[in-house]
Specification:
alpha+beta, Nucleotidyltransferase, domain 5, five-stranded antiparallel sheet, 9 helices, globular
Length: 438
Amino acid sequence: MRVCVVNQQGRPLMPTSPRKARLLLQAGKAEIVERTPFTIRLLYGTRGYTQPITLGVDAGYATGGFSAVTEKEELVRGELKLLAGMSERLAERAMYRSGRRRRTRHRKPRFDNRRRPGGWLAPSIQHKLDSHLRLIARLCAALPITHVVIEVASFDIQRLKDPDIEGVGYQQSEQAGFWNLREYILHRDGHTCQNPACPNRAKKILQVHHLGYWRGDGSDRPANLITLCTRCHTPENHQPGGFLWGWQPRLQSFRPETFMTLVRWRLVEALGAEATYGYVTKSRRIELELPKSHSNDAFVIAGGSSQARAEPLLLEQVRRNRRALQVWYDAKYVDARTGEVVKAQVLNNGRRTRNRNLSGENLRRYRGQKVSKGRISIRRQRYPYQPGDLVRYEGQIYRVQGMGGYGRNVKLAGQSKEVRASLVSPVCWRKGICRQVP
């Protein structure tokens, strides 16, 4: 993979080879300014010659891909694994805030004072938008990118509604239109046969079926199409009394896809980028005989064809800090039925609502010997190591899972017991967007 280069003022230049970057560092003519991607800054003046670079972005809900391409080679490519669990953490924060407000009766209600500004997004969706913008900004700071192309959706909704629509982005062949409609139906149905009793689960060839054929409706509306395999999509099943005659299944909704489409269009508007669609990417990727991956899709989105490929850069998003200051550790008992040590919540009384008719079995009678009592742990200071950091212990590198003993001990991945914090030394602070580690 190429090494990114910036000049004395921080302006990105064309990347160089690892060998030349190593020679510049050894000669004292450059210094390291960024690790992901690896970037050096020149300590002497240069002419600043650059070439056109196109950045392709495959924005995703859980994982996104990126690829920077020139006419001759691919400079950088990779995938970013986004931070998961944002909705759950936001719901937990709202629960704690609501509990605090209920305990302060003197506090005036504020729910009528809140106003949502124009363009407001849900916090979890806003986080995904900000994460993609942060990744693109980091790439633009390391490479002289001149053009950005973003895939906004797997299909073109306007073309589905009006197949005769015209324009520069719609002047495609008949095959492209086929990919558009077919890709939408396959993507909506999860690329699986929608027959609940399908006997062909192992190997199958998928086709698109018209649901309303039995009543004379042969239109290509998405609501009239569904995915079936060749074993189920047979002439016998089309006859009266067959499986398909009068079949009206419930089709899946696209609420998550709608959210991500909104995020992708926001990216296009914020960056002034060019938009493309997934069916164009898929047809082009199949022509190039590339396997399915986010980085390969980004390579195709950027206009890549026969350029020399770069080694993939696998990134992930790590939490910068755990904001919860108080943690509750439940009591533990010996289960009289199995002899195992379980939490007290497992052996509860079965009462969950005020309605006693909805209560479950009372399992408290199976609580045996009490192993540990419940306690509240309050973090009173910021610990030196956070989950995900890399440290060195006994000559080997470990990933930190957390701190214990009020900051005196460190929990390491692969170690059954905690170790003293004074016995480890830091190797890498992993915050925000960083490389993936095993």
